[in-house]
Amino acid sequence: MKAITNVTGFNGSGENLENVTILIENGKFFKIGRQLVIPEGTETFDAQGKFFTPGLIDVHTHLGVHEEGIGKEGQDFNETSHAATPEVRSIDGINPFDKGFSDARKSGVTTVQVMPGSANVIGGEMCVLKTAGTIVDQMVIRNPSGLKAATGENPKRFHGEKGRMPVTRMGVAAILRKKLVETENYIAQRKAGTADRDLAFEQLAKVLNKEVPLRVHAHRADDIVTVLRIKREFSIDVTIEHCTEGHLLAPFLAEHGVRVSSGPTMTPRSKVELSDKGWYTLPALAEAGVPFSITTDHPVIAIEHLMTSAIMAVKNGLSETQAMRAITSDAARHLGIEKRVGSVEAGKDADFVLWSGNPFDLHSKAEKTFIEGQQV
């Protein structure tokens, strides 16, 4: 057993911790409170003068499939041989020795979702994993955690320039709808015993059966509305990834009950879809009651700037509580792993960070990061 005493900070769920003791057993938070009896022989850490938070969560990254510092050889995130590749899986391309994982741990990020890129209309399956480890299968906590899809400029550019569909936004939507219809037919044929196994349709079937959501790259407002139209047509669960123009239709998003991954807002306006990019999107989503998370989209913005992004969100209208939830408890809900991580509660994984000061002060640094009770 371990004990962290004199803990002050955020619990991830919107409440502050003030001079409490946290007991950890078997890698889980065991008890949290004041005047706890610490069993004899317990390894004890004094957090006096430090600031405590749950481990941070980035819901949308390409860690390990778009490796840093090695160029083309490490770019395993876009299988651009076809416009729809639902059969591929991010777990099969992750290199746990990517330097980005070390950067994540050093900056307090303990959990990430790793997904294919946005070159394809359907990019493949994604997974959620801890940022410490050398064997991906032992790092994973949810696999699959969703199926990647993309709208807008990226699939049009990657495939349209090669002279194949999609060339237009109509073509993007048509490919996605066609694959979903073909999957409906496949499911019926499998039940009737008239179809052989097909990996592409098997993984799409998880979306239609609501085992995982379709997580769709959509920046522009019209693309977001197209995604919601397809959600209604096929009665599937979706999340909106990036949601750059979400401020233009926040109440409409709220009506559809979707979760949003917002970011990376620290980028320049490098393409047309980002022309209305700004920190004002997050307060608009919050006001409308749209649940959101903040992402770096690593390596678009380096993973060590997840906390920096939250600081910028506070500077531009979010409360510290809202911003912290967006990279802890709300992020965990976005990924469907809220029973394991995201807040300091008995029974959850003991993933936490000790900071030199309030993490919303850019001068503060993550001094120690723990995953399942072990310093990493």
Question: Can you tell me about this structure?
Answer:
The structure is a single chain. The protein is an alpha/beta fold and 376 residues long. It folds into 2 domains: 1-54 and 343-376, Urease, subunit C, domain 1 (Roll), CATH 2.30.40; 56-341, Metal-dependent hydrolases (TIM Barrel, Alpha-Beta Barrel), CATH 3.20.20. The chain is 28% helix and 25% strand. The protein is built from 11 helices and 16 strands. The strands form 3 sheets. The protein has an 8-stranded mixed sheet, with helices on both faces. Strands 3-2-1-4 form a 4-stranded mixed sheet, with no helix packed on it. The chain has a 4-stranded antiparallel sheet with strand order 5-14-15-16, with no helix packed on it. It comes from Sediminibacillus halophilus. This is Imidazolonepropionase. GO terms for molecular function: hydrolase activity, acting on carbon-nitrogen (but not peptide) bonds.
Count of helix runs: 11
Annotated CATH architecture of the largest domain: Alpha-Beta Barrel
Element-by-element helix/strand order:
EEEEEEHEEHEHHHEHEHEHEHHHEEE
CATH top level of the largest domain is Alpha Beta
Q: Note the main sheet.
A: 8 strands, mixed
- Tally of distinct domains: 2
The shape is globular
Helix content range: 25-40%
Radius of gyration: 21 Å
Terminal residue distance: 17 Å
Q: Tell me the total number of β-strands.
A: 16
Task: Kindly summarize this structure in a few lines.
This protein is of the alpha/beta class and 376 residues long. It contains eleven helices and 16 strands.
